[in-house]
């Protein structure tokens, strides 16, 4: 995210002496992406950011994945998924591949442990609830409709003010605005559906005192994704100032300006972020197609390179009437399968000029497996709802 910010006390020149009122040097840390060749920030710590006094195994939540085989579309009912209240430890894996993992948790009001994802950036969609995320860069508020984007290796913890439904998109890469929205220098362009004013990062440093502070670190090994509990000699939230273009921020869907057209627009116009081998889109309340013969719901389509994951979070999703899909549902439409609206929804949409619907979509360019959380809440009748019958005839559908 190449939008410069400066927070707290920093010296006039980088990599020069910066001292506290008693004359003690602050410790400068560079957090930088792609081997010093991309976005970075400089943070100034009171303590030594490398000083650990312990390192133990942290047993991660179940990360096992089951291939979508035999191939079929899936409906997962996330509101039926039981989780513990911890925003980090109690995430349940819903879908995933080697590029991105999607998890879900309903929190309580206790803070999470201190946590750092050293595998990739996280983009957490807040389905409901509010609170703050305390980070080494400072504090950011969150509310329903926010994407909370946390860069790789940022120490943070979730502090909910109320129970919060969190849909966590964990990348193996960085997450950023689509390149087509950006100038060659990184500014969001006029045709982009949002701008820098809509991105809300920390505004002041955040300090906590403490010694022997545990931080849960998710990281990679030759054996796959693992966890380590590192114990730091001094509190990691000891930064007096920082500046740069790398930091956590929130973006709320209310600030996204949908792009519409005379006939039905393809999903890329709804894109909000991209990562390596996946994109994030949001479908929001909007005026729809105004050609006199337009069909407002999507045409049937074969996304031959992608698996499509739609998370339905608000409104009344016109194209899915008769499928059993409702709020809190996920639909997985895999590559190799043509998908689209329920047949009855096509005629019903004619003449409609406004859709009141909200959904978050993740399209991946590698096949998605099902996590244990997804398997636990699958509606097994969904695949047969377009035809009205399945292997067991007559089929009994979730919306019957």
Automatic annotation (TrEMBL):
CDD domains: cupin_RmlC-like (cd02208). Pfam families: HgmA_C. Its cofactor is Fe cation. SUPFAM superfamilies: RmlC-like cupins. Residues 296-364 form the Homogentisate 1,2-dioxygenase C-terminal domain. Residues 1-22 are annotated as: Disordered. Belongs to the homogentisate dioxygenase family. This is Homogentisate 1,2-dioxygenase.
């Amino acid at each position: 995210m190449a939008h410069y910010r400066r927070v707290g006390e920093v010296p006039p020149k980088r990599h020069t002496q910066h001292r506290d009122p008693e004359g003690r040097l602050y410790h400068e840390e560079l957090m930088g992406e792609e081997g010093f060749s991309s976005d970075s920030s400089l943070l100034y710590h009171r303590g030594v950011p490398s000083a650990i006094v312990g390192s133990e195994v942290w047993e991660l939540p179940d990360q096992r994945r089951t291939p979508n085989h035999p191939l079929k579309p899936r409906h997962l009912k996330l509101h039926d998924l039981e989780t513990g209240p911890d925003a980090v430890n109690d995430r349940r894996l819903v879908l995933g591949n080697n590029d991105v993992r999607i998890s879900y948790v309903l929190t309580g009001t206790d803070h999470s442990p201190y946590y750092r994802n050293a595998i990739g950036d996280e983009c957490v969609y807040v389905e409901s609830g509010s609170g703050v995320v305390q980070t080494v860069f400072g504090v950011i508020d969150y509310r329903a409709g926010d994407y909370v984007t946390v860069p790789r290796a940022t120490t943070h913890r979730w502090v909910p003010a109320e129970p919060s439904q969190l849909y966590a998109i964990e990348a193996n890469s960085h997450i950023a605005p689509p390149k087509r929205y950006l100038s060659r220098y990184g500014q969001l362009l006029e045709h982009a559906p949002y701008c820098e004013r809509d991105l809300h990062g920390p505004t002041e440093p955040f300090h906590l005192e403490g010694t022997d502070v545990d931080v849960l670190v998710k990281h990679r090994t030759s054996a796959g994704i693992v966890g380590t509990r590192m114990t730091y000699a001094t509190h990691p939230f000891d930064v007096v100032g920082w500046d740069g273009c790398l930091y956590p921020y929130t973006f709320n869907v209310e600030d996204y300006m949908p792009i519409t057209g005379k006939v039905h627009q393809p999903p890329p116009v709804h894109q909000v972020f991209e990562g390596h081998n996946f994109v994030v889109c949001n479908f929001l309340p909007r005026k729809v197609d105004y050609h006199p013969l337009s069909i407002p719901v999507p045409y049937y389509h074969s996304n031959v390179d992608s698996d499509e994951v739609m998370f339905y979070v608000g409104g009344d999703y016109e194209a899915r009437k008769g499928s059993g899909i409702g709020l809190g549902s996920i639909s997985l439409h895999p590559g190799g399968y043509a998908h689209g609206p329920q047949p009855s929804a096509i005629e019903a949409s004619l003449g409609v000029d406004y859709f009141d619907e909200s959904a978050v979509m993740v399209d991946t360019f590698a096949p998605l497996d099902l996590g244990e959380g997804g398997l636990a809440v699958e509606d097994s009748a969904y695949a047969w709802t377009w035809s009205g019958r399945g292997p067991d005839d007559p089929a009994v559908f979730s919306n019957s």
